[in-house]
Amino acid sequence: MICVDRVSFAYLGQRPLLSDVSLTLRTGETVALIGPNGSGKSTLTLLLNGLLKPAAGKITVDGMDTNDPTHQSEIRRRVGILFQNPEHQIVADTVVEEIAFGLELLNMPRAEMQRRVAELLNEFDLQALAHRHPEELSGGEKQRLAIAATLATGVSYLVLDEPTALLDREGCDTLFRLIDRLRHDKGILFITPFPEESAVAERLLYLDGGTLREIPQDEREIFCAALENDK
Amino acid sequence: MTNEFALCAREVSYTYRTRLERIVAAASLSCRLEAGKVTAILGRSGSGKSTLGLLLAGLLKPDAGTVFFVNGHKPSPETVAYLFQFPEQLFSEDTIENELCKGGRITLEMAKAALQSVGLEPDNFLGRNPFEISGGQARLVAMAVQLARPFQAVIFDEPTAGLDWNMRAHIRNLIRTQAQAGKIVGLITHHLAFAASISAHALVLNKGRTAWEGDPEQLIDNAKIRKELGL
């Protein structure tokens, strides 16, 4: 379980962006996070896998404190982040090398690495593109590659930071089917600027003005409709 | 009304040539964008929307066919403003005033008027660093940069990507205002509902051809065509 316990955070010289924020994310559940631009959604993402450290409060991943430098590597192996623009996290020259990149960093034996890469190419329907340069892929294909590479190292938690921003309808449908396949054994935090997309998740969190609150199940539909219409 | 000012493409074709393949992005495509109206350009990723936008703006030259204003003039960056996806990523100055006035063609008065036209108070923004404002504000500044100079037509390419519901509403009003001011407005988007809320006429592209044309409201209730066209 990821446990965020009364966390506050401010960038240097700026007003607090997050104040006393708490949340939990368990494997096997999908949680949606919505909030206006600048509310701190992406900052929260970076706090979850220890890329940023809380100014107050505590974040643990399966009991490991993100502030403890001895746990950094294991926390980042367990918490995968998919950024809004997949191009920002693709580093290799071919699809197959991109998926293998994280496994090489883990010093995985070559035979096991090849087996794992083949599994992911198959699972994400990337076999035909295996030796293509990532620059030659469509937006949706790049995103499937980024997710496959993120999952390669066996993450338990997947944070999707506005993953539909650059996708067309079919790309969104493919992503939602993928979430459905992953949701049973991963903890998924799905961040979106589209309230209607939060229906993909069992729980809904709303971040605004530095504070986070969970929207009760029976109020979700009205809450989301109000956000879209209150303009 | 065929006698109104308009920007037209007549049987334009354009093919991208990559290392591995030739991609036909426009195939004998014709369209007419009339002044005072928002014309939506819809379609799945890779259908040729942005290519058509670049052809209409004179930024790409067609392999065949012609693009022209009805007065006979050819479109060019002098007459057509083009708002790329994530235009704020093109910032290169350390104040918003310098960003607006770079190149020497925009006076301070024009810069102030452009900021006001996108809803930003000049006195509060001219002296600020464009890298230190919110994502939504940065998008508006980037729009002001393009809208500061005289133009006859403007193409918005996915203008709301990455923005929340409040900013989407603000930008919808901004686009509508441009049309009400008599400009020719093209709106490239994945989002049918957004297009339908602002335009009475849409082209839906598929493989570089016009697959459907009409009032986008008619598409909302037609699931079969939407699915065929990836909307």
Can you give keywords for this protein?
heterodimer, A: 231 residues, alpha/beta, Rossmann fold, six-stranded mixed sheet, four-stranded antiparallel sheet, B: 231 residues, 2 domains
- Would you identify the CATH architecture of the largest domain in chain B? 3-Layer(aba) Sandwich
Number of helices of chain A: 7
**Poorly predicted parts of chain A:** none
* Topology, number of strands of chain B: 9
H/E order of the elements of chain A? Answer: EEEHEEHEHHHEHEEEH
Description of the molecule:
The complex is a heterodimer of chains A (231) and B (231). Chain A has a single domain, classed as P-loop containing nucleotide triphosphate hydrolases (Rossmann fold, 3-Layer(aba) Sandwich). Chain A is 34% helix and 23% strand. Chain A is built from 7 helices and 10 strands. In chain A, the strands form 2 sheets. Chain A has a 6-stranded mixed sheet with strand order 6-7-8-3-9-10, sandwiched between helices. The relative contact order of chain A is 0.19. The mean pLDDT of chain A is 91. Chain B has helices at 49-56, 96-101, 108-117, 122-125, 135-147, 165-180, 192-196, 216-220, 223-229; strands at residues 6-17, 22-34, 38-42, 64-69, 80-83, 153-157, 184-188, 201-206, 209-214. The two termini of chain B are 29 Å apart. Chain B is 32% helix and 27% strand. Chain B has 9 helices and 9 strands. In chain B, the strands form 2 sheets. A 6-stranded mixed sheet of chain B has the order 5-6-7-3-8-9, with helices on both faces. A 3-stranded antiparallel sheet of chain B has the order 2-1-4, with helices on one face. By secondary structure, chain B is α/β, with parallel strands linked by helices. Chain B has 2 domains: 1-79 and 153-231, P-loop containing nucleotide triphosphate hydrolases (Rossmann fold), CATH 3.40.50.300; 87-150. Classes of the chains: A alpha/beta (231), B alpha/beta (231).
